[in-house]
Design the sequence.
């Protein structure tokens, strides 16, 4: 099963559903903060915030969303060439006592999210942390699960899942490549 | 990057990468919890053969904020004062498992020798060798200048800026490192010093040279003026002096209020410290709103965190 798994309309529907699930689970948008994990988590968090604002007009999408760079918290830094550190941008009032929804494109081993939890710990103390991902491809290595999932894609470890977003790549798609030779 | 020995072998891309990383490091230092787990389990040795408080504690703070273990080794009262060679010191540090050695030495080339002598495995950071190089000082100067003088500085150099370096160029590793780095980043550099304190081989350097500060201020609009410290032993003492008197030096090269007023509105005043107030810089200039001298110290920690991160965080190359 390789090729395009999600097209632009599928991705839009998945994000709209996740936005409503977030509102439903948290009884409205009052204390929500959406933090995307660079690179592609950041525009996904912005899209979710815009959809929440459509459903709840009092919600200011620009002031409730940000990016959380986790490079310096990774557990595999010594296994790769030196990574470039990305920017961390938080809402003006921070994350203390907020419900933080972490947003990432592909949920795989769970190690990125482990690092993100440590990173959040250093910027404040949220009331709760939840996780929204566009694609869950399985193969967890840590006891971490997502609260909101766009699509579950069963994969083998050798396959690659590439998420393409119009803000960065020019178009919206989720593409599965590779696989056992 | 395996070592950071000088600014003359840094490419523009490498230099900008260090400055951009320093920007992110500086952002983490504004948080309540400033310690990052990034270099946990790594050991950084500060190997100082020359007295230096500022540079050593700056490196120590940088390493500790990244959770590295720090061992301070100063020549005074150590095995070095008993006659141990640099090689044997290096072998000792290797045996202790040093991942990085930050070295300050009175001999030019000591850091290079330590890095390329095949004595030890870790990364070497030059924290000043003789009158040769002091790369992290130049990087923090460039970082400070870029922050103040370049709009949206991320990813950019110092293109089109003009920067004056005033003072003892001859003995200054800070000046040498800055000339190379600022030029690599696209700035134009002017040197201002008494003829006796200009190196003999300055001809091929990519700079223009002035013999007093007023001439330089006549010739150019400087975006930044960097005052260097005049060391006391160079001032007087019969045949050993490089200029007739401290008063004359102040009159020709000191940054006083009149010269401060001649700078453009956006220009900044820098000094690597420690300052001789009243000699190369007046108290008014040192404390003016243009002065970024205290900020340079804070930026030094961020730049050194960036250097340690880029040297130590990636996979080990054989």
Sequence:
């Amino acid at each position: 099963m390789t090729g395009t798994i999600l097209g632009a309309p599928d991705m839009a529907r998945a994000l709209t559903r996740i936005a409503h699930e977030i509102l439903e689970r948290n009884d409205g948008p009052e204390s929500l903060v959406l933090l995307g994990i660079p690179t592609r988590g950041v525009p996904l968090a912005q899209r979710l915030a815009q959809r929440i604002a459509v459903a709840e007009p009092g919600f200011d999408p620009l002031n409730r969303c940000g990016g959380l760079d986790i490079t310096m918290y990774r557990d595999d830094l010594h296994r790769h060439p030196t990574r470039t550190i990305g920017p961390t941008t938080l809402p003006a009032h921070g994350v203390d006592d907020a419900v933080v929804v972490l947003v990432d494109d592909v949920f795989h081993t769970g190690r990125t999210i482990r690092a993100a939890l440590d990173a959040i710990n250093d910027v404040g103390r949220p009331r709760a942390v939840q996780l929204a991902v566009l694609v869950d491809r399985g193969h967890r290595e840590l006891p971490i699960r997502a609260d909101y999932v766009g699509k579950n894609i069963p994969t083998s470890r050798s396959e690659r899942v590439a998420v393409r977003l119009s803000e960065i790549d020019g178009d919206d798609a989720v593409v599965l490549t590779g696989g056992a030779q | 990057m395996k070592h950071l020995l000088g600014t003359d072998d840094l490419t523009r891309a490498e230099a900008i990468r260090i400055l951009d990383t320093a920007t992110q490091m500086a952002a983490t230092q504004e948080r309540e919890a400033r310690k990052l787990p990034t270099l946990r389990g790594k050991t950084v040795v500060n190997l100082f053969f020359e007295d230096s408080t500022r540079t050593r504690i700056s490196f120590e703070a940088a390493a500790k904020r990244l959770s590295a273990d720090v061992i301070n080794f100063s020549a005074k009262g150590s095995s070095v004062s008993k006659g141990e060679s640099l090689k044997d010191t290096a072998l000792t540090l290797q045996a202790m498992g040093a991942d990085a050695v930050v070295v300050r030495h009175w001999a030019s080339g000591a850091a290079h020798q330590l890095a390329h002598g095949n004595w030890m495995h870790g990364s070497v950071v030059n924290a000043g060798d003789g009158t040769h190089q002091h790369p992290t000082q130049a990087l923090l100067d460039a970082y400070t200048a870029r922050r103040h003088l370049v709009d949206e500085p991320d990813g950019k150099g110092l293109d089109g800026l003009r920067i004056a370096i005033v003072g003892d160029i001859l003995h200054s590793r800070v000046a040498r490192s800055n000339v190379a780095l600022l030029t690599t980043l696209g700035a134009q550099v002017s040197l201002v010093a008494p003829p006796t304190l200009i190196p003999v081989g300055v001809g091929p350097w990519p700079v223009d040279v002035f013999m007093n500060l007023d001439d330089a201020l006549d010739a150019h609009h400087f975006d930044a003026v960097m005052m260097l410290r005049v060391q006391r032993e160079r001032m007087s003492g019969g045949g050993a002096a490089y200029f007739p008197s401290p008063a004359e030096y102040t009159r020709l090269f000191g940054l006083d209020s009149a010269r401060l007023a001649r700078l453009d509105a956006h220009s900044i005043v820098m000094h690597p410290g420690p300052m001789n107030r009243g000699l190369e810089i007046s108290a008014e200039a040192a404390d003016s709103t243009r002065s970024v001298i205290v900020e340079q110290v804070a930026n030094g920690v961020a730049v050194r965190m960036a250097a340690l991160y880029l040297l130590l965080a990636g996979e080990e190359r054989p």
Q: What stands out?
A: Chain A has four helices and eight strands. Chain A has a mean pLDDT of 94. The first strand of chain A starts at residue 3 and ends at 6.
